Amino acid sequence: MTTLVFLDPAFEDGRPADAAEPQLLATDLGVTRGDGVFESLLAVGGRPRKLPAHLARLAGSAAALQIEAPPNAAWERAIATALARQVQADGDGPAVVRLFLTRGPEGTGTPTAWVSAAPVPAATLAQREHGVKVLLLDRGYDSLDAPQQPWLLLGAKTLSYAVNMAAIRHAKANGADDVIFTSSDGRVLEGATSTVLLAMEQDGVRTLLTPELESGILAGTTQAAVFDAAGKAGWALGYGPLEPSHLLEADAVWLASSIRLLAPVTHIDGEPIRTSQRLTSELSALVEDIL
């Protein structure tokens, strides 16, 4: 069951709505133009994880699109209402919470904001446990484009996800589960809905690496949390630049995201790569402790 709660000034804790009934105007620019932003986060036991980080990223994405975002307190109350209804309907298992903010109906100047909550799909949990096969796909821009072309909204989490979803469909049609995007100049960027992490061990030193944010990727809240915990646990940390060869040479590669957490990458372009159950277990334990 999916629960919906709209942020509405007339309802302090949000306005519950029926997910089985139409709720958006056909003129909402989030629908007609993909003109909006969103966030996805995990809730366990009815409690959202990494909420301050997600709200901060949502505010940054909204600022990039010049959409006025509701205050954090309004989001927090609506999330609490949605999760209370979701727990009542489906129990306190892990849930996907999504925050949506659009520019609103055309011509009104009034943004539309709502929260949804639903159980985490079984397929998502399976990828966390069994890993994923990925294809490398060219994202179609140079890794140096982001600072020079802010209108591309690289690094903002917008509703314009058609390319990302098309990439995943392409991967599945070719025997894979997901993708890792690369830049036109050969740098590793990110997954369709995730951040890339890789680990290397040499002479007893464990190093955790991720692509550099300057390449225009979305700042990963899970990646940031993992880096913080791994650094405290004695890991060395690094931010690219990374190339596909680094993925093939790594001791382990993961796709990190708020819902799947750490999904080990088992194959790249049809070829098996090294995995490490030990490293996956260690980092997953750190994630569970900090989230």
Automatic annotation (TrEMBL):
UniProt-listed GO biological process terms: carboxylic acid biosynthetic process
Segments crossing the lipid bilayer: none
Keywords linked to the UniProt accession: Aminotransferase, Transferase
Gene3D superfamilies hit by this protein: 3.30.470.10, D-amino Acid Aminotransferase, subunit A, domain 2
Stored InterPro entries: Aminotrans_IV (IPR001544), Aminotransferase-like (IPR036038), BCAT-like_C (IPR043132), BCAT-like_N (IPR043131), Class-IV_PLP-Dep_Aminotrnsfr (IPR050571)
Family: Belongs to the class-IV pyridoxal-phosphate-dependent aminotransferase family.
NCBIfam families associated with the record: PRK07849.1-1
Stated name of the protein: D-alanine aminotransferase
